[in-house]
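Obj: model holo form, ligand = nickel (II) ion.
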Amino acid sequence: MITMKDVIKEGHPTLRSVAKEVEIPASKEDKETLRKMMEFLHNSQNPETAEKYGLRPGIGLAAPQINVNKRMIAVLVNDENGNLHEYALYNPKIVSHSVEMTQLENGEGCLSVDRDVPGLVPRYARITVQATSIDEEEISIRLKGLTAIVFQHEIDHLNGIMFYDRIVENNDPFKKSIPSSFK
Ligand code: SB7
Ligand code: NI
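Output (holo structure tokens):
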């Protein structure tokens, strides 16, 4: 199973490189990596397993964060309306997005960053993502709110981008933001 010692930290060059496309059909090894990434998210959100293995709770994980430089992400998030979004994907791609932007009220964090980095991270309010699911179905999904933010954070990891690269100081104070109780 994946634990915190498998998660690489800022300063590691893999976090700054562009991950490679996964060849579909995926190899057994790639599929197993993606399955373990999702298992990590479940374990990290379960108070017993999180405590037992010392896991920081995570709502998303990108393969480069476990030093696998391939385009795979796992997302497990309860959105602001109480709906669960669970996705394990190969080669996710944002194919369209809103003009409107959003942000998490209290900024973002990252399992690969062991410090608080304050600041607002502008994200598209709505995105459409195409990807191949772990079951190898071509999917197209429309996302908004917290789920859309998490997807953008994870897809950024595939492109060597960290959340703090996007922090802006001069932000519109009237812009609608998502309360951080949903983080
Ligand atoms: C806040 C947290 C995350 C995404 C967007 C806003 C996920 C944190 C866990 N990760 O480091 C995943 O890359
Ligand atoms: Ni991250």
